[in-house]
């Protein structure tokens, strides 16, 4: 009796486990950042499952999880520039697939869509854009080149439901000969720049010296002019102070007491000699000094 009850208990346990397993096989969970593609007996359903818990038919249906989060891939590419220089490029791409395209991608491409579609498209875009620039332009316009490659790549893969979030060129590498030529050119440009700088410095110094000479010459000329003006002003004051009385006084001071033998009409001193007043021989001399008008 006891053995019979044990068998019944085991049977009930097995049935419960089977029912539980069957029930749980009807439940599927789609994690965050993913979408669920329903495959019914090998046929892909166009409707995808959102994040969360969903019911499905056990055994008949299965749910394939597709990653819709941003993913990253890095690729090494070889291309040729417009001036026929070999270019080795390292690129890094951030991308994701859209939820709406998940079922179509799984049906038409498969879960290895990055290798099947994205990688070849990257190579093609890099080669197509690199061929439009010279090797030097690829270096000097690196940001613009990266943007153009990213746009070209987006146009190629967006039709599959793959969206490019960011495209970066991580490295440009050229042949040893080209690198040597670039280095020589940079050295030549630096030497040219140094020579131009030295020449400009010499011009600036020469202009400064010339300016200093001009300033000194102007200062000297101004000093001479001021001196001449001062002398002219002094002469004017002297001339203004020489009135008739002063001139007469100076003439008297310079007279030696002798009468000139000849007195012209232009003489500035007139000596009046009075005649004798008596026979006694006495004489009186008065000198009147007048200015000849």
Structural summary, described in words:
The protein folds into three domains: 2-66, no CATH class; 71-174, Tetrahydropterin Synthase, Chain A (2-Layer Sandwich), CATH 3.30.479; 197-254. The chain is 51% helix and 23% strand. It is built from seven helices and ten strands. Helix 3 (113-130) crosses helix 5 (142-157).
Largest sheet: 3 strands, antiparallel
CATH architecture of the largest domain: 2-Layer Sandwich
CATH superfamily of the largest domain: Band 7 domain
Count of discrete domains: 3
Amino-to-carboxy terminus distance: 182 Å
What's this model, at a glance?
This protein is of the alpha+beta class and 293 residues long.
Q: Which descriptors apply to this entry?
A:
293 residues, alpha+beta, Tetrahydropterin Synthase, Chain A, 3 domains, three-stranded antiparallel sheet, 7 helices, disordered C terminus
Question: What's the SSE blueprint?
Answer:
Elements lengths: L1 H24 L1 E4 L3 E7 L2 E7 L2 E4 L5 E7 L3 E10 L5 E12 L4 H7 L4 H18 L4 H6 L1 H16 L4 E12 L2 H66 L2 H11 L15 E2 L17 E2 L3
Antiparallel strand pairs: 1-4, 2-3, 2-5, 6-7, 7-8, 9-10
Helix pairs in contact: 3-5
